[in-house]
Design a protein that fits this description.
The protein has 14 helices and 23 strands. The chain is an alpha+beta fold.
């Protein structure tokens, strides 16, 4: 399957930020390409500041702008308070009760479940990424097992027990008062081919997920919940499912727990788009949020019902950018359009391959040498000439030689790299024609070699010039 992800944020471009750094990186990259000033404030790049030079400045913690207040974050993080706020605003939400894990007993828990009615959902009040969420619990025995699982695996004293609502799990992204994107999340699963075991199917699917900038850190891991799901289907990890058989492995649909993602940005009903925006508005001080919605389509009666489960004040925007199926939304563009409406992309196709390396930013911050790193502006020329030159080099390059070539590249405003391997020297150069020719000539003189092979430089161009033996 060919992935249809945002052209300006292809995997090779954002590879430095796969996983936890992805959200910060793509927002900062979009701002930098627009000519805005980007300053990183923490070594994990979760904290950064974007300014426009005209007095407007926005600080971010990943996707959360400083327009979102701490009180709004606290309320959204508490699933019990979230449920109360949603129901008070007239937004469909499940009925729920708070559970004190320290004092609760299986008997009191079962009594609360009886009052709500099975099936139920048990989850921590302040959990994230699907950790400790157990849905569709249908019996007291299952509830007791999941209760013990929650107490042993999640560090929390409070939980929420709520009615399980049938429907498909969706994440809707709202920025300000704008509906931006939506995706449907499907619990971890594999599809049989009639030949492979469940374990082999999981390994194969995980290999594909590792190539996805967002899903690469959300692999399917075999644990007790997965084994329980397999057992309920008469299977084990070494069973061979029939060709085309879809085997569900978990209840929660979070991508971080191995789930699939299907983009539904264009097809989400208008009523639910408006409900997601209204849900965010129900929390004073909440500017940007991922809204979790369960949607039930009754095709027989041509009706659609829904319920808002919770809100995330630090949404992982990669879930909307890099779906398993469908077209990924260009979320960074929407975010910068909201915060800096007077800025825009340059419109050059080649800019989509220009990026900045995290490896040059993080050391200064992690070592304490600097408490802030501001990116140099993206050159206006956009590195029009991009070449790779290869020549012989049997003698190891000295540090002095590397420094001389690096200095020449910096003075000429040329990006690229100089590497020596297997008695060959590879010189990558990107910049204006005159600058590239200057650095090439200087490298040949300093290294006493002739770069006799040339080819176009295809792929990402990271600003700066790096050297290595």
């Amino acid at each position: 399957m060919v992935n249809d992800w945002p052209a300006d944020f292809q995997p090779d471009v954002v590879r430095d930020a796969f996983g936890g750094k992805l959200t910060s990186y793509v927002i900062a990259l979009e701002a930098w390409r627009r000519g805005l000033s980007v300053t990183f404030l923490s070594a994990d790049i979760s904290r950064y500041r974007i300014t426009d030079g005209a007095g407007r400045s926005v600080r971010f913690i990943r996707s959360r702008p400083n327009l979102t207040t701490l009180q709004a974050v606290r309320t959204a993080n508490d699933k019990s308070l979230t449920n109360e706020a949603l129901r008070a605003a007239g937004i469909p939400a499940p009925r729920s009760v708070r559970v004190d894990l320290a004092s609760a007993t299986p008997a009191t828990l079962m009594h609360q479940a009886d009052s709500l009615g099975y099936p139920v959902v048990l989850k921590p009040t302040n959990g994230s990424m699907g950790q400790g969420v157990f849905a569709n619990i249908r019996t007291p025995e299952q509830l007791c097992r999941r209760f013990e699982d929650l107490r042993s695996t999640v560090k929390t004293t409070d939980a929420v027990l709520e009615t399980h609502i049938a429907g498909e799990d969706h994440r809707v992204l709202v920025v300000g008062d704008r509906y931006v994107a939506a995706c449907r999340r499907i619990p971890a699963n594999v599809t049989g081919d009639g030949r492979s075991t469940v374990s082999e199917l999981i390994r194969r699917k995980n290999a594909a997920r590792r190539r996805n900038p967002f899903l690469s850190k959300g692999l399917i891991r075999v644990d007790d919940e997965v084994r329980d799901f397999l057992e309920s289907q008469g299977l084990e990890t070494d069973s061979v499912p029939a060709h085309g058989a879809r085997i569900q492995l978990r209840s929660a649909a979070n991508a971080s727990a191995g789930g699939d993602v299907v983009d539904v940005t264009e097809s989400l009903p208008q009523e639910i788009r408006e409900a997601a925006v209204a849900a965010v508005a129900a929390f004073p001080g909440l500017h940007t949020a991922g809204v979790d919605v369960l949607i039930d389509h009754d095709e027989a009666h041509s009706t659609t019902s829904y319920a808002v489960l919770e809100l995330n004040a630090h949404p992982q925007i990669g879930v909307n950018m890099y779906p398993t199926e469908g077209r990924g939304a260009d979320v960074p563009r929407h975010i910068l359009d909201v915060h800096f409406p007077d800025s825009q992309r340059g419109g050059r196709q080649e800019d989509a391959e220009i990026c900045f390396p995290l490896s040059a930013i993080q050391p200064a911050l992690s070592s304490g040498v600097s408490d802030a790193v501001t990116l140099a502006p993206l050159p206006h020329h956009g590195f029009p000439v991009r070449q790779v030159h290869v020549g012989p080099g049997s003698t190891s390059l000295t540090r002095g030689q590397l420094i001389q070539v690096q200095r020449a590249a910096r003075e000429a405003g040329v990006a690229g790299s100089l590497r020596q391997e297997d008695q060959e020297i590879t010189l990558r150069l990107a910049g204006e024609a005159a600058g590239v020719e200057t650095v090439l000539a200087r490298a040949e003189a300093v290294l006493s070699t002739c770069f006799d092979r040339h080819r176009p430089w295809v792929g990402p161009v990271r600003v700066g010039f790096v050297t290595g033996g």
